[in-house]
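Before a colleague's protein record goes any further, I have to sign it off. Would you go through it and say whether the fold makes sense for this chain? Take the sequence as given and treat only the tokens as open to question. The record follows directly below this note.
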Amino acid sequence: MTITLDNGELRLVVNPQVGGSVVRFDRLTECGPEPLMRPGSEDECDPNRLAMYPLVPWSNRIGGGGFAWRGRHYSLAANLPGEPLPIHGDGWQQAWQVEEQGDTWLRLGLRSREQPPFVYRAELTYHLEEAALEITLAVTHLGESSAPYGLGLHPWFPRSAEVTVEAAAEGVWEVDAAQLPTEWRGLSPGEPWDFSRGAALPTGKIDNLFTGWNGRAVLSWPERGLTLEVRADTSRYLVFSPGEQADFFCFEPVSHEVDAHRGDPQRQGLVELGTEESLSMRCRFRCLAS
């Protein structure tokens, strides 16, 4: 069953049973609800067909069948049909429990031990405040041995020919055919993936992680007179879209780099948590529509 939050300016529909996902996020206008994220249907059971879902206890892919940590190897199976690698942890594929709710806010909880060494409880809060949606995602480790954690959000936005993305970054990771990182490179002013002053999405596929972000992005749909500001307390984001023929793109604030578990985990953004230690992130989506 979905839950609707409404503050008169914005409306948010959440399905706790489907990964704690957002089904729809709309601004309310005289002409009716206008989607700020790609809208889904309330009976949809696949988070990848909805508007947004949380990433916990990690973001994106892990290669090599698992990873080594503190002298032990942990195997991880692929958790998505058609995807050869484990992706996005397990929080997005589980039912969350409603902890508290009001007219404009909702707090969800989850306990998981599906993918050792990640034994955790998570908390996800949605809050509508004037023209903004604020989201807090937190995880607390419950295992006896420590584990490396990361967090993120995976929103899906409508793609149009005119849409632009503004998000400064220092560099980007190139990837191989499996979408695993191969080489980091600095960004040059004016190149196709330089979003520092606002740029169109590339015509071809993009599924790459950007580093050195200042935590602010602006997504603009000039043909709709719509601008959405994104603020997050992370220094990395990922942009994904199959190409100009797609009707969506993703701008994902994340706390760590792709496949960081097999690289230099803590240097690449993962945080080692001992028993009862916590990690959190906050993100705010603010409508700047004229």
